[in-house]
Design a protein that fits this description.
Helices cover about 45% and strands about 10% of the residues. The protein is α+β, with helices and mostly antiparallel strands and about 260 residues long. It folds into 4 domains: about 55 residues, no CATH class; about 80 residues, Helicase, Ruva Protein, domain 3, CATH 1.10.8; about 50 residues, Arc Repressor Mutant, subunit A (Orthogonal Bundle), CATH 1.10.10.60; about 50 residues, no CATH class. It comes from marine sediment metagenome.
């Protein structure tokens, strides 16, 4: 709430003070704000300032979840394939129709961000130029996750399973950004890490398959290819760390294990 008060003050004055300065500077900006929560509910719950809400809510644009406009998935996939391959400096890959059909059937709780991450992973792990359904084994797993079976488990076990799935969904929708997921769940990071460990929550598709990169002559396991917070590295490279603290760097389209 303290940060919201500062943001509201800026929106009212359109002036900032640089660190170490005592005078204000006027700035000419337009603010585009987005939220994955219902802000009216957050206002009623006293987690979002009402005055800031009305100050930001000039033009309200509602973006529906991806599952409600599946007809756009084909175009989004084509776009992500082209852009990602260009960024990696490799020929543009294509997606087989059975794989594309499967993508259109999924519920996508993480919306466009989850779809993009799925395409990026498929590009990185598929050696050829055509991505097949067999290259996306986690898709079948996600379909099974939507089905809740009531067996002989106790109420305590059922609660743990619900908590596990609830936390997993928040992590996936926040792209496994621990700070964002913890804030969304109303937990601190330490407590979130404890729950992940206690509930044995892992990223999906942790298969220990070996991947050979011909352009660097190195092998690494798929379970090391877990994308977390991106950190800017020198010389135009990007580093990613996984839960096992191994680090991957992308340098000019080449994947290296450091």
């Amino acid at each position: 709430l303290a940060a919201q008060a500062k943001l509201l003050q800026f929106l009212e004055s359109l002036a900032i003070e640089r660190l170490g300065e005592t005078r204000s500077r006027k700035v000419d900006v337009r603010v585009i704000a987005a939220s994955n929560k219902e802000l009216q509910d957050e206002v009623q719950a006293k987690r979002f300032r009402e005055d800031l809400y009305y100050r930001l809510n000039v033009i309200d644009v509602h973006v529906p979840p991806l599952r409600t406009h599946r007809e756009d998935i084909s175009e989004l996939v084509e776009y992500f394939l082209e852009v990602t391959c260009q960024e990696l400096g490799i020929p543009t890959k294509t997606l087989e129709e059975p794989a594309l059909k499967k993508l259109r059937e999924l519920s996508w709780p993480g919306n466009v961000r989850q779809l993009r991450n799925t395409i990026e992973k498929a590009i990185s792990l598929t050696p050829g130029l055509t991505i097949r359904l067999s290259d996306l084994p986690e898709l079948a797993y996600e379909e099974k996750e939507d089905v809740v079976e009531i067996g002989s488990d106790s109420l305590q076990d059922a609660r743990k399973e619900f908590e596990r799935r609830f936390i997993l969904q928040a992590l996936e929708e926040e792209d496994w950004n621990m700070s964002a997921a913890a804030e969304r769940l109303g937990l601190d990071r330490t407590n979130l890490y404890r729950k992940i460990k206690a509930l044995k929550i892992k990223r999906r598709n942790h298969e220990r398959t070996a991947l050979h990169l011909s352009n660097c002559g190195r092998h690494f396991r798929d379970d090391c290819f877990i994308r977390a917070n991106c950190c800017r590295q020198p010389s135009g490279s990007y580093g990613y760390t996984d839960n096992n603290h191994c680090c991957l760097h992308f340098v000019q389209g080449t994947t290296l294990m450091l």
